[in-house]
Amino acid sequence: MKKEDPPICNRCRCQVTVKHILNECTLYSTARTSLHLDTDLFSCLKNNDVAPILILTSM
Ligand SMILES: [Zn+2]
User: Fold this and answer.
1) Is the pLDDT of residue 55 over 70?
2) Of 21, 14, 13, nearest to 53 (Cα)?
3) pLDDT value of residue 35
4) What are the tens digits of pLDDT across the range 1-51?
5) How far is residue 39's CA from residue 36's CA, in Å, rounded to a whole number?
6) How far is the CA of 18 from the centre of ligand 1 (A)?
7) What is the distance in A from the centroid of ligand 1 to the CA of 42?
8) For the chain, what is the domain count?
9) How far is the CA of 12 from the centre of ligand 1 (A)?
10) Residue 22, burial from CB neighbour count under 10 angstroms (0-12, 13-18, 19+)
């Protein structure tokens, strides 16, 4: 297993986490709105529609 540094958000210059993407990052705010995601992290995690956002982070 190759150990890699955690991804850094180019927009915010902070570590990219699921919480950051779902609740904090302005870069994904439009995507969140379009998917009608709840602002509550746990509600987001229960929502399968969050998958497209997670895919975006790997691009
Ligand atoms: Zn960010």
Assistant:
1) no
2) 21
3) 73
4) 567 777 898 888 988 888 888 788 888 787 767 776 655 555 656 666 666
5) 9
6) 10
7) 19
8) 1
9) 4
10) buried
